[in-house]
Amino acid sequence: MATTADIRNGLCIEFNNDLYTIVDFQHVKPGKGPAFVRTKLKNIKTGKVIDNTFSAGHKINTQRIERRGYQFLYNDDVGYNFMHTETFEQLSIPKEMINTPDLLKEGQEVEIVYHTDTDTPLSCELPPFVVLEITYTEPGIKGDTASSTALKQATLETGAIVNVPLFIEQGEKIKVDTRTYSYSERVKE
Fold first, then answer.
1. Which of 31, 32, 171, 180 lies at a C-alpha separation of 20 to 30 Å from 140?
2. Do 138 and 86 share a domain, yes or no?
3. Is the pTM of this model over 0.85?
4. Rg of the chain on CA atoms, in Å
């Protein structure tokens, strides 16, 4: 058992019968009253962030999680199928465990987070940026807007739709931010 003195960013704890990682924390020692630790906790399964305050010296139950490298193979009725990059062991997980499933393409490298005590997968995380080809977008017309930040919709090779600047054309490859689901930059080959 650990205490609030052991709290640090990224630590995984069991809280309210669920697994949370500590996103942010602050030790507070007010002039009156006992010290406490103010935290922001992110639920590993749902991604929801909550605020919680622990009194100083409170016992916390730390948990071990592990990130394992996998490669996306295909999806079917059962779920999304991945292959471990070192052992070549295959794994199928449901769509709900993937942070942005419509940005996944075959051969994409991902990290699957495991709870080491039970050896069960908790979530699947794509890298921060993925490179995808645009399969369809309307042509952008110069002078079509009053501002310089005009955007249009583009359909990617995975079927996902993102907003891109007017100068992006069909057939080009772009870098997409998987955390914000937005256009980042054009990729030159």
1. 180
2. no
3. no
4. 21
